[in-house]
Write a structure and sequence with these properties.
Layout (H helix, E strand, L loop, with lengths): L1 E6 L29 E6 L2 E5 L5 H7 L7 E3 L5 H4 L6 H7 L3 E5 L1 H10 L1 H4 L11 E5 L4 E3 L2 E10 L2 E8 L2 E3 L8 H6 L5 E5 L12 H11 L3 E5 L7 H7 L4 E3 L5 E3 L1
Parallel strand pairs: 3-4, 4-5, 5-6, 10-11, 11-12, 12-13
Antiparallel strand pairs: 1-2, 1-14, 2-3, 7-8, 8-9, 9-10
């Protein structure tokens, strides 16, 4: 298995529009962060974790030629607005793409992408997807997927554990039962928005505290704002913790 970080930025992306800070003007390609998403590859299987606004350019960069499923953490714009570009895989593969999420996320998708589910004019193209509500562990192309609960401010959203990997983003609090579910990980992906506290996302100290509670062998930070220069942040983190960057691939 392999995990590829399709995007590692916050909802504004980095560079942010009109910002002239040092990170937004940086020449380091690791400071160019599209909106957060990741791709899990296992043999010929390709599973997308969220489908960000920037999905088209991410898929082109990674030369993605097939897609077997999308696991959504929640229904906010930066995590779902690439869904319309799924239709290219419908054309290529000749079948719908299954989409997974909790009941609230699926309801968000039905509202946001109403035209996908409503009768529309003939001759138009729109994504062909099938919705699957996540209520507990399930098998997907031979992989055991175990959802876990996190809080995004007051909103309950999902993270996913697949074998030795756990992936979450936009978390601000982890219930005790989630900590118990995430013991024994090889790799944890977790959000770290900025240095200052934030009401709906872990800041850096919150992410590091969660990592310490979970105790993975390796942790990678994602959903990162222009508060952080990649090289500077990497030099400040404890052993076993590192910032991810767009295009990074890690074996599992």
């Amino acid at each position: 298995m392999k995990l590829t970080f399709m995007g590692t930025g916050t909802s504004t992306g980095v560079p942010a529009i009109s910002c002239t800070c040092a990170v937004c003007r940086s020449d380091d390609p690791r400071n160019r962060r599209t909106r957060t998403s990741a791709l899990l590859s296992s043999g010929e299987t390709r599973i997308l974790l969220d489908c960000s606004i920037d999905f088209r350019q991410q898929a082109l960069r990674e030369q993605l030629s097939s897609l077997d499923a999308v696991l959504f953490t929640h229904g906010h714009a930066d995590h779902v607005f690439g869904l319309d570009d799924i239709r290219m895989f419908n054309f290529i593969q000749g079948r719908p793409v299954p989409v997974y999420g909790n009941a609230g996320t699926l309801a968000d998708l039905e509202r946001t992408f109403w035209y996908v589910f409503a009768p529309t004019q003939r001759g138009g193209s729109k994504p062909q997807i099938t919705l699957h509500e996540v209520t507990g562990p399930f098998e997907l192309h031979g992989l055991q997927v175990s959802p876990f609960h996190v809080l995004h401010g007051r909103i309950p959203i999902l993270g996913y554990r697949i074998g030795p990997l756990a992936y979450m983003t936009d978390a601000s609090e982890l219930p005790d039962e989630t900590i118990a579910q995430l013991q024994g990980l090889d790799v944890l992906v977790i959000n770290a928005l900025r240095r200052e506290p934030h009401p709906t996302h872990f800041n850096l100290s919150g992410a590091l505290a969660a990592i310490e509670r979970i105790g993975p062998r390796r942790a990678l930070l994602t959903h990162i704002s222009h508060d952080f220069d990649h090289a500077s942040l990497a030099g400040q983190l404890p052993d076993g913790v590192e910032p991810a960057f767009d295009g990074l691939s890690i074996p599992l």
